[in-house]
Amino acid sequence: MTDMRQTPLAQSLPASVPFVGPETHERARGAPFVARLGANENIFGPSPKAVAAMADSAGEIWKYGDAESHALRQALSDLHGIAPEHIMVGEGIDGLLGYLVRLYVGVGDAVVTSLGAYPTFNYHVAGFGGILHTVPYRDDHEDIAALFAKAHEVKAKLVYLANPDNPMGSWHRGADIVAALDDLPADSLLVLDEAYVECAPDGTAAPVAIDDSRVIRMRTLSKAYGMAGARVGYAMGATDVISGFNKVRNHFGMNRCAQIGATAAILDREWLAQVQGEITVAREDIARIARSQGLTPLPSAANFVAVDCGADGAFAKAVLDELVARGIFVRMPFAAPQNRCIRISCGPKTDRDAFAAALPEALAAARAQASR
Amino acid sequence: MTDMRQTPLAQSLPASVPFVGPETHERARGAPFVARLGANENIFGPSPKAVAAMADSAGEIWKYGDAESHALRQALSDLHGIAPEHIMVGEGIDGLLGYLVRLYVGVGDAVVTSLGAYPTFNYHVAGFGGILHTVPYRDDHEDIAALFAKAHEVKAKLVYLANPDNPMGSWHRGADIVAALDDLPADSLLVLDEAYVECAPDGTAAPVAIDDSRVIRMRTLSKAYGMAGARVGYAMGATDVISGFNKVRNHFGMNRCAQIGATAAILDREWLAQVQGEITVAREDIARIARSQGLTPLPSAANFVAVDCGADGAFAKAVLDELVARGIFVRMPFAAPQNRCIRISCGPKTDRDAFAAALPEALAAARAQASR
Questions:
Q1: Which intervals of the chain are annotated as region Disordered (chains A, B) (predicted)?
Q2: Of A296, A291, A299, A286, which Cα lies nearest the Cα of A341?
Q3: Contacts 24+ apart (CB under 8 A), B246-250
Q4: pLDDT of residue A330
Q5: Which value does ipTM take for this structure?
Q6: Which pLDDT score is estimated for A266?
Q7: B115-127 pLDDT, tens per residue?
Q8: Whose C-alpha in A6, A214, A246, B170 is 20 to 30 A from the C-alpha of B204?
Q9: What's the confidence (pLDDT) of residue B368?
């Protein structure tokens, strides 16, 4: 029941929970998953130095976190060779996206994204009363020219582009994105979500000039750094864009141990390199498993592989359901035609073996349903 | 510089950072504080079982937290004897207050609070374009009758009441708050912030019927439970109020280790009782130290003591600055006449001894300034 004292906008929002996590599935099925390959978590885990730093600092949790995330921003400043004023740390990219939409999108304002791209961004846009305009993927890639053309057409406040893309794993060269910025409307801000960029080939990160106010880049500790549960993300951009967060953010919102662990994780380049190698191996193995069953893995620059199940969304959904029923947690794109795929996160060999064992049965069961 | 692509509301918000944390002070002064008694943190710390649970789970931080905070809500459900549907867990009371203001307060909507009460609530109200109306404290207590009368006068969407109060430490009997609810306007929602209630005498927690939609109660792991840096708070209320959070909250916003640690902390009633005892001793000791210097400690039901410095806000500010200069981090109320006080958080004996040692010098220095 909706509380009629809420604002008209809040009353208009759906009360249903849009995001179902693996624990919710597990409680419903009454058993834990055998392999947790659905949320693009990094099962190879965080740097042992980050784990040790968090464990060692747990006793200090009585202190609020540093409102400026000073040490972490300093480490990021050194990593990227930009001044700390160009960096904002927040409660994951999800948290930062919420603040950013709030800063730029009022009721009725236009926003542009790709049809089937990151749903949490769409959730924030709807939540602040924005009007979402979508353009289709083009050959399973986000279509930069079409996104920017749509932004002109609808006078978009924000344009969302993930590179590499989730859920497809496709990517653009960073230089191509920078070159396209001249086609972005002057009143639009490009939200470039580079959550998966550490999993991508060299040249994927966009070489944006740090004082370029046309774009804000988002990074996270949740993917290659293996700290999804810590809720640490950061934004990089021009100071007039970055400083806006201070108007609305929860200044003491960061978990103190997460700040400390994230700083250690950023500094451990050796661990990151090792995980990057593991992810490459895992992508190839997932592709091999998919091909062995006659499916088509898509090229991926992320820590997951989208696998084309060779038919429509209903069939892919049947495959997914049959995998979940066998204890393999995977997810899938929600919009056609990308929803002909299922999306499998990279994990260690034991997880991939469990997937490989379940896939033939799941496919057979889905095909049996389809032929009924 | 303000980014002119922001919404009109966002452009109107101050870009200055309203909340300065102790680490920022420490970096400015080039040395750590001797005693950290300014942020109402609980220096006695969290349950060792909570610390162990967080340390043990640090290696699992690659997993997102449970979007439903199921185990923690179950523990809270058992503790309070209410169904989990009446409980929402969020990123500290600060985070929950942000969501709540967003749900209920549109641009131009009226909100009522006490003049000098919790500034983060005011920050959220301003951030969503609400109009804050204030009523004075009455004998250093929040004035419930005046708050509710003002709510009628201005047609308030939200009325904020902290019990015990921060920054004064004063309190009302919970039963008196419940009795007063009949005077609350039908269209208002009372936000009853019980952050410090575990530090208060029996009978301070308001015995609100759980299906009473007139009030939402806020609790936290940051104070008596000693986990400020974890960012765990919760709200209790009628389901139509509680379910509203699902429309706007960051569903995967909770730190996973914090969820696990908070659950352990809630279950460790023995540790809480011990800390409650320590806080009582510390309050009495802080009062004794204040009296020994001719100052007047106010009665407190919180984990801090407001100390009347016997003059105006300028004098109290001078005392505070002199304490800070001597490595004693304290804060003070920001509105008259409460700003005749400084506010000292409860800490162990070593911290109190450091405060006791610094106070005579700080007072002498402040008095020397005042006589110039």
A1: 1-21
A2: A296
A3: B246/A15, B246/A16, B246/A17, B247/A10, B247/A13, B247/A14, B247/A15, B247/A127, B247/B103, B248/A10, B248/A13, B248/A127, B248/B99, B248/B102, B248/B103, B249/B88, B249/B90, B249/B99, B250/A91, B250/A92, B250/A94, B250/A95, B250/A98, B250/B91
A4: 97
A5: 0.97
A6: 98
A7: 999 999 999 999 9
A8: A6
A9: 95
Tokens, residue A11:
């009353």
For CATH 3.90.1150.10, list the domain ranges present in chain A. 17-45+270-370
Residues in B 121-160 with any Cβ partner in A closer than 8 A? 127, 157
Instruction: For domain A17-45+270-370, give the fold.
Output: Aspartate Aminotransferase, domain 1 (3.90.1150)
B106 to chain A, any CB pair closer than 8 A? The answer is yes
Give the CATH number of domain B48-267. Answer: 3.40.640.10
Q: Give span(s): CATH 3.40.640.10, chain A.
A: 48-267
CA distance B89 to chain A (A): 14
Cα torsion B110, B113, B116, B122 to 10°: value is -50
Name the B residues in 328-357 with CB < 8 Å from any A CB.
none
Q: Is B36 in CB contact (< 8 Å) with chain A?
A: yes
| CATH 3.90.1150.10 boundaries in chain B | 19-45+270-370
**Tens digits of residue pLDDT in B314-327:** 999 999 999 999 99
Burial of B342 (0-12, 13-18, 19+ CB in 10 A): buried
State whether B229 and A65 contact (CB < 8 Å).
yes
pLDDT tens, position by position, B62-107: 999 999 999 999 999 999 999 999 999 999 999 999 999 999 999 9
CATH of B19-45+270-370, one of 3.30.950.10, 3.90.1150.10, 3.60.15.10, 3.30.450.20: 3.90.1150.10
**Which letter does DSSP use for residue B345 in this model?**
E
For residue A277, give the amino acid letter: G
